[in-house]
């Protein structure tokens, strides 16, 4: 496993918070067709699995620059009851100082990077949609 998959993401919610399940957003037929296609791809790639959960977030599509559709989960309600972790971000000038004298730089495109992090078992149900 990669380091990203060894690290497990948690989603701690406020004490006493009840599971939230929102009704699905309305979709036009072309969106429903795209939803079915993208869900099938995610199932085949092991990014999602069938489940039963008291939690449920609606999904929607956002058009990308190339006019294709990106499937998005609306976790705003879950985010409202999530306990936020706070991590200090390094100052940009300190980061540049660390790069002084470096000869090689690289950049990566984390396509589907969101799917590269493992969610702890007890928190998987909160990600239902």
From TrEMBL:
It comes from Tanacetum cinerariifolium. CDD domains: RT_LTR. Residues 62-129 form the Reverse transcriptase domain. Keywords: Nucleotidyltransferase, RNA-directed DNA polymerase, Transferase. This is Putative reverse transcriptase domain-containing protein. Signal peptide: none annotated. It comes from the Eukaryota. GO terms for molecular function: RNA-directed DNA polymerase activity.
